[in-house]
Input
Amino acid sequence: MTTTMPLSASLEDYLEAILRIISQKGAAKAKDIAKALKVNNSSVTGALKMLAQKGMVNYAPYDVITLTDTGRSLAVDVIRRHESLRAFFHTVLAFHEEMADKMACTMEHMVTSEMLERFEALTVFMSACQKAGFSFSPEKGYFCPKQTETGRFNNDSTQKTPSVTTLDQLMPGQRATVLRLNARGNLAKRLREMGFTKGATVEFIKTAPLTDPQELLIKGYHVSLRKEESSHVSIEIQNE
Output
């Protein structure tokens, strides 16, 4: 018997761990889950039984654990929340990666879809701002070299909100226009053959469970790019 009732934070952690293990090893075993979550085997068995009852996993003692379509969908959503929050804490709030990861683990179970979209949008905006000179320090807080002596920012209406960045910074659901390729040789050739030419529109469809590679839509085709590759594509984010 399955249910659509929301899962507890603990069970969401199990789904997230299972998907990460499957992505890394190809299959998940109870001992791998116990090691990843730092819990004992009996806790894992109890959690797997509950997830199986809810239609989230396929589980049998001493067999590998797999996710149902429903379980995989929720696990991907949990990982997206985690990675987006970690990027926000690291990029926007300037916490080091370990602390950003811990805070993301705490908040990923509480954030709503609308909140997440705003976190992601602000992270993209701040990433672009950083490339334009916007930064943070414990001493000064947030500051910009173009800040006036009074502490106010130049509010010239002719200035556009920074939206130029690289493809690896695009968030799921966003669209952008390709400006140029910052690659040479075989990589540049491959990117052009995939459709990444000046003026082309690219849409971020989804990310892999471990955030790499990105699934993108360009010129009617779905393509996958590792972030190391997409970082060589300059884009301008399209405002809806």
Notes: DSSP finds eight helices and ten strands in the chain. Residues 92 and 123 are 6 Å apart (CA to CA).
